[in-house]
Specification:
heterodimer, A: 328 residues, alpha/beta, Heat Shock Protein 90, 5-stranded mixed β-sheet, two-stranded parallel ribbon, 58% helix, B: 242 residues, Rossmann fold, Arc Repressor Mutant, subunit A, 5-stranded parallel β-sheet, 5-stranded antiparallel β-sheet, 20% strand
Chain lengths: 328, 242
């Protein structure tokens, strides 16, 4: 948790110093003027000039103070804006409830608001996850009932529907539960995981291939990694028609690259596809399984493992998705 | 399909009445003799008066959950247990298998899947093969590798977790259970068919080559799983049990 201070302690000191300086200058100015006029009985215009001069000095002082106060008032507002920007990006941001009375109120309200938002989100997430789990029992009944349908075509269609719902549920639960995964990170062979995912796809007679090194240890959560790799292989097969996985080590980085020969993703949309519930072609959304959470989940997993997700269109066509992780 | 002389009795422990009825009907149609219980106490009553060949046990039950029941059954008997769970996550699966369950099926499952798993387990236990299937925490080590059949985990010599598919794990288990002996393709096929009904002769070779690649460590590669031409394979390393 980060603690931010809205009211800088040094402000009071700075303001006092500038004011004292201005008053002192004003005082010295008036004194010089008085002495001067007393000694040489100066012409009235000189006295006038002197007064203007001393007023000018006082004015400068006031402007300086005003500028300082303004700058120091906008500083807390700026840090408030920064704090507000950070809300919802993972870390819980707290603002120190101190300083001037009004700023203290703002800080207090901000903190309370954030607590309420966090609480609401957690309640919603838990409710959604609970429903997700509970839906599995009626789905289980449905799937078993499908087994009794005599018409083979209808039975297969029913089973496919249940499978699709199950896939959606699984991805939703993975997305919701991603933050608090109990699985601890451990030394894991990334190559073995990638090979299993490709092997499973190949067993289902889908065009998936593996190339690269036989072993590559990383420190990570193996189940999460498997989900991430399987999501991008699944995407490549689904949208690109094939999946070529290449595992390599680039210095201290383990790189799992999955390439396909599909249409790729328009450059303008590359960032958008990482958003939750995003689908490339909304008109055809009904033809695609899942909820559009696949890549969001992959990114979530990689961030937690200290890695990154890179999407790139290949010059020869098709998409290249890279999972980059620190290698051991 | 081999028909047992007596229809195997299967006890369903499931709190959802509709699902329980469906399972009963399904098992009856497939030639089993189903019994049912809605919770732990009822299960205990049924077990007192009946001999059961297999228990289908739901994880989420009112009162004591499936894991507790699994543990208490294991204290008294070796009856095969298949856990059914709405939470299809790996942690649950591992807990179930560690507590001595024979298999774990995530909901929703299809009729075909369920029946295949039940038949596989019954075949395994009724043929008296159970002894060859190591159970629980008996860890095995070979050439620096270690294998934990309870957690279904393989660790490489440098301590890294090496992911294996279900079929690969079963195959490796078959190899380390009969080390330094030639195992014929037929026998391997039979062993892996207990779990995967559609394994073919060729798929054994594919599985072996996948396993070889995952077990490949500088220089050691070919020697762990050697091909005996025309016969099958031999697992060359010595296996130690702990």
């Amino acid at each position: 948790m980060k603690l931010l201070r809205l009211w800088p302690q040094r402000l009071v000191g700075q303001v006092t110093l500038v004011l004292m300086l201005a008053v002192a200058l004003e005082f010295i100015g008036s004194w010089i003027l008085f002495e001067y006029s007393r000694l040489i009985r100066a012409a009235p215009w000189i006295v006038l000039l002197g007064s203007v001069g001393s007023a000018f000095i006082l004015g400068l002082g006031v402007i300086a103070v005003a500028a300082l106060v303004l700058r120091n008032l906008s500083q807390p507002l700026r840090s408030l804006a920064e704090a507000a920007d950070k809300v919802g990006q993972g870390a819980h941001v707290r603002i120190a409830e101190s300083g001037a009375r009004d700023l203290k109120l703002v800080a207090k309200a901000f903190n309370a608001m954030q607590d309420r938002i966090t609480g609401l989100l957690r309640a919603r997430t838990e409710a959604l996850a609970a429903v997700g789990h509970d839906l599995r029992t009626p789905l289980a009944r449905l799937r078993l009932r499908a087994g009794f349908v005599k018409d083979a075509e209808a039975r297969e269609a029913l089973e496919a529907d249940v499978d699709e719902m199950t896939t959606m549920l699984d991805s939703l639960l993975a997305y919701l539960g991603g933050q608090e995964d109990p699985e601890p990170p451990r030394r894991t062979d990334l190559a073995a995981i990638a090979m299993t995912v490709i092997g499973d796809a190949a067993d289902a007679e889908r065009p998936a291939t593996y190339a690269g090194i036989d072993h590559l240890p990383v420190q990570a959560r193996p189940l999460s990694l498997k989900r991430a790799i399987s999501n991008i292989v699944e995407n490549a097969l689904h949208y690109g028609g094939d999946a070529a996985l290449i595992l390599a080590r680039e210095g201290d980085t383990a790189v799992v690259a999955v390439e396909d020969n599909g249409p790729g993703i328009p450059e303008a949309e590359l960032a958008g596809v990482l958003q939750p519930f995003h689908r490339l072609d909304s008109a055809r959304a009904r033809n695609t399984a899942g909820l559009g959470l696949g890549l969001t989940i992959v990114q979530q997993i990689l961030q937690r493992e200290g890695g990154e997700l890179v999407l790139r269109n290949r010059p020869q066509g098709g998409l290249r998705v890279e999972l980059r992780l620190p290698a051991l | 399909m081999a028909t047992a002389p007596l229809a195997p009795t299967i006890l369903i422990v499931e709190d959802d009445p509709a699902l329980r009825t469906l399972l009963m009907r399904l098992l009856r149609e497939e030639g089993f003799q189903p019994l049912s219980a809605g919770h732990g106490a009822e299960m205990a009553r049924v077990l007192e008066t009946n001999t059961v060949d297999l228990i289908l046990l739901d994880v989420m039950l009112p009162g004591s959950n499936g894991f507790d029941l699994c543990r208490s059954i294991r204290r008294e008997s070796d009856v095969p247990i298949v856990m059914l769970s709405a939470r299809d996550d790996e942690t649950d699966r591992l807990i179930g298998l560690e507590l001595g369950a024979d298999d774990y099926i995530g909901k929703p499952f299809s009729k075909k899947e369920l029946i295949a798993r039940i038949r596989a387990i019954l075949r395994r236990t009724q043929n008296g093969q159970q002894a060859s299937q190591p159970r629980g925490h008996q860890q095995m080590t070979f050439a620096g590798w270690s294998l934990d059949p309870g957690r279904r985990e393989l660790l490489s010599p440098d301590g890294a977790f090496v992911d294996l598919s279900g079929a690969e794990f079963d195959l490796l288990l078959a190899f380390v259970s009969s080390p330094q002996r030639v195992i014929g393709r037929e026998r391997l096929l039979e062993m892996s068919r207990a779990r995967f009904s559609d394994a073919s002769d060729r798929s054994i070779d594919v599985l072996v080559s996948r396993l070889r690649r995952k077990l490949a460590v500088t220089g050691q590669a070919e020697s762990l799983l050697r091909t005996v031409r025309g016969v099958g394979y031999i697992f060359t390393a010595a296996v130690e049990r702990r």
